[in-house]
Amino acid sequence: MYEVFADLHIHIGRTKNNKPIKITAARSLNFENIAKECVDRKGINIAGIIDCASPYVIEDIEEFLKNGEARELKDGGIIYKEKLCIILGSEIETSELNEQGKTGSAHNLCYFPSLKDIKAFSKEMSTHIHNITLSSQRADISAYELIDIVEKYNGILIPAHCFTPHKSFYGNCTDRLEKIFKEKYKKVPAIELGLSSDTFLADQISELETKSFLTNSDAHSLPKIAREYNKIQVENISFKELLKAIKNEEGRKILSNYGLDPKLGKYHRTYCETCDKRIEGKMPVTKCDTCDSRNITMGVLDRIEIIKDKKETKSPSFRPQYVYQIPLTFIPGVGAKIIEKLLTHFETEMNILHKLSFDDIEAVCGGKIAKNIISAKEGKIEISAGGGGVYGKVSAK
Fold first, then answer.
1. Which end of the chain is more exposed for a tag (fewer CB within 10 A), N or C?
2. CA 295 from chain center: how many Å?
3. Spatial separation of the C-alpha atoms in residues 45 and 39, rounded to whole Å
4. What are the φ/ψ torsions at residue 248 (nearest 5 degrees)?
5. Nearest partner of 259 among 1, 6, 3, judged by Cα
């Protein structure tokens, strides 16, 4: 058994031939560039690329496999330079109807072991999605129906960024996942927490006590890869081993969730769209404390306060530690030039975040930068909360 780092939610902006996939993502995010970024700069060992059901991306993957540096694994996944296992995934938006008759939409992360499986999934989903070439498109089916299609092609389904006010199950569809998945709820092995929540918030909901938690980046640009990630224990890097870790089977497990302090997330607190301000009132905030308007974007903290059913947070015994991790790009004084200098000396971001001392960093970047990076690692840094689509901010004490 050994320990590896995994980020399972990375988008593709464009194909190698510049065909659009995720409109809001950077053009530089293509399949090959993601693989190189994970190996050469990030130090990530398992990467979930979740736009692989697009026929245009499938073409890129087939070309990628011809270059001699990558191959498909018998146990699932694509191994690149013997250092990175790429998990082929698809983010699907489903149409949901709650018990009050209100409609909502939610994103689902669907992962598959082989190129053959995701090609078959893509073909079937093209009958439910208007434009299968684009990312995160809305299907004309519910998650209850989608999970059967995913299983048909040997895949698993994990609800994405579960608490965000837009495109998530708890955020705008339901107060309980079991109401969505019904008797199939046991087939859902995990949820993705999202940038504005953490273990301690999510474990206030009793139905999640049997589910693993994942912290992923939802990267829309190369630098955002691994701003949240997981440390897992496996025998090798493959789809089969990853699934065992997610399910906590045979000694494989998630060892740590590395994520933002939820206050740094874009939707942590409620935001008044009329006054254009974050509302810091007593939880849960359901209207503006200035203009009395209900034209608000509900914050994750406030939403969980409404739907929680436990008086105190108590995590199950298998739950790994949640480690607050401030990405290098959030730390005061750490810009692109400083990061490049650090990478030149220490190779990957995982090395910088996990292995370096104050003295190591000071020798390269000076005492002020070293102090800020170490303070961020130790949680000795001030954070102002985000909301309404704006990230929280970090400032040195």
1. C
2. 28
3. 7
4. 60, 50
5. 6
pLDDT value, residue 397:
65
Both tokens of 21, joined, read 């996939």
The pTM of the full predicted model, rounded to 2 decimals, is 0.94
Can you tell me whether residue 395 is helix, strand or coil? strand
Question: What is the separation, in whole angstroms, between the first and last Cα of the chain?
Answer: 40
How is 191-235 classified by DSSP, letter by letter?
A: EE--TT--HHHHTTSGGGGGSEEE----BSSGGGTTSSEEEEEES
DSSP secondary structure of 273-309: TTTTEE---SSSP-S-TTT----EE--HHHHHHHH--
Residues 6+ away with beta carbon under 8 Å from 66 = none
Q: Hey, what amino acid is at 292?
A: D
The neighbour count for residue 304, using CB atoms within 10 Å, is 21
Phi/psi class of residue 3: alpha, beta or left (left: φ > 0; alpha: ψ in -120 to 50)? Answer: beta
Nearest-angstrom CA–CA distance, 213 and 201: 12
146 close to 129: Cβ distance less than 8 angstroms: no
Question: Helices 143-152 and 115-125 meet at what angle, rounded to 10?
Answer: 140
Q: What is the pLDDT of residues 87-114, one digit of tens each?
A: 999 999 999 987 777 788 999 999 999 9
CA distance linking residue 300 with residue 302, whole number of Å: 5
